[in-house]
Amino acid sequence: MLVLSGHPIPSDRIAPSMLKTAFVAARDRQRLSEIATILIGFGVTRVVDRLGLRYLPLLPRRRPRVDVTRLSEPERLRRAIEALGPTFIKFGQVLASRPDLLSPAWTEELQKLHSQVVPVSWEQIGPQLEQDLGAPPQEVFAEFNTDPIASASIAQVYRARLHSGEDVIVKVLRPNLRKIIEADLRLMAHGARIVENEWPDMARYQPREQMRHLAEGLNGELDLLNEARNCELLAQIFDDRDDIVFPKIHWEYCSERVLVQDFIHGIPPNDDAALRAAGVDKKLLAQKGTDAFLQMALIEGVFHADPHPGNMLALPGNKIGFIDFGIIGRLSQRRRSQLLVLIGAMLKQDADGLMAVLLDWTGTSNPDLTRLQVSAQSFVESHSSIPLNLGLVLTDFMNMARENDLAMPTDLAILFKGLVTADGVMRHLDPNFDLFAAAGPTVKASMQTQFSLGALKQKAEALGVGLYGAASELPTLIHLMLVRLKQGRVTVEIEVKGLDKVTRGIERAAARVAVALVVAAFATQLAPRLIDLGTPVFVSIGLIIFVLGIGWLVLLMRNK
């Protein structure tokens, strides 16, 4: 059973809702049938049954592709997700980074999801690339290798050389991808709406917000111009540093389905032999990588969302190179301030401060405060040793949120995922690496920026303008309210969620009462009079009306 924070979704309520989805999303019914077929093929039958998908029209009857008796339920789901394609893979990867939503058994299995897939043949992708470039790639580039160097679920990557001599990579979207992803997103968004409306206990996990972020990220990846803009946005942050490298974008060749950028000749930070041969200082690289990531996140509020070893490269001269900017994270100034408070609470072993930050982040929930306080105290005590393992700290922090029925805001979940990934890379470079200690200078700079006299002056001025505006409108509002009171025209509007359901219930109850009254009136008043008339036709008609009324009343009672 897939359980969110210990709360299983009621299967008796999911099936009707998802069957409704099948009929509402008529244009996506074929894709819905494909999804159900794949789930059945991998033995994820419980999900199929609970979603009410087993009896979709034209659903093929297939035996499982694997011997499901030897696989755990999380493993079956992971294999099915990989077969379902990029939309579900991305969603599974998001869930894998959310220990505040799923238990460890599920997140650990979903972490095995990968986007590497069998490449599309050149015969399929070549014509699309030629159309986007306006000419065969062998003419546009001085050299072009038709064998991809990487093949992911969204795009494939090729090596090439410009006529001006630069080595570049050419990233190309896989053909016919958008239609499938858009159908998947429509179905998943509709499902999220159903979950949020029908199961109040699930609403605190903000399924529609989760789907919105998923759709935003995938739509961004489907437009390679967006990735090019992300690259240049992050590169501008480090204009004054030559030890943090970003690839140059060659805009004249770029389009929605094609991205051309410099090829960065670097070494993955987990390739120990190559790092030794290059003579790089791994400890220095760990410090520089941390400085760069934290400067992006804490000071600028925009950061690389997936700094895994394939996207961070070691370059000669102890430089760090970043690649792959399909998804970036953003943090508001308020979030950055909260993050600084969280770091301070962790370093000071302040359980109350930690709990206050968590409650501020998940303000829509109503947790057991006593239980949460005990959890927070246990958390700070279990992470009192120095140096702190940031990856473990953040994972346990999100586990604590899940155990207390709290869900992290999506923007922070993205940041935490990035921090955990970056911490793993840095620890590989330097096993004794302490990201909290390394973050000291960046945290100090961020606090100086946020709480400098200039920043406080700006906040005070903004507050003063807001208060002045409210104060200037107050006399008019008071006068208007007094006039309305004198006229007896003050009205109160109350919005009650689910009122339409209450209304329908009242209507059904009224119908039952009406039918009951009619039947009762017939039985007590009209029926005896008809019998007294002695006319068989009238008696027969009366009895038929009586039986129909009783039958209708029973039916209404059964459907209440």
TrEMBL record:
UniProt-listed InterPro entries: ABC1_dom, Kinase-like_dom_sf, UbiB_kinase
Pfam families membership: ABC1
Domain ABC1 atypical kinase-like: 112-356
Transmembrane region(s): 537-557
Keyword Zinc-finger in record: no
Keywords, ordered alphabetically: Membrane, Transmembrane, Transmembrane helix, Ubiquinone
Membrane found in the keyword field: yes
Family: Belongs to the protein kinase superfamily. ADCK protein kinase family.
Name of the molecule in the record: Ubiquinone biosynthesis protein
UniProt organism field: Methylobacterium phyllostachyos
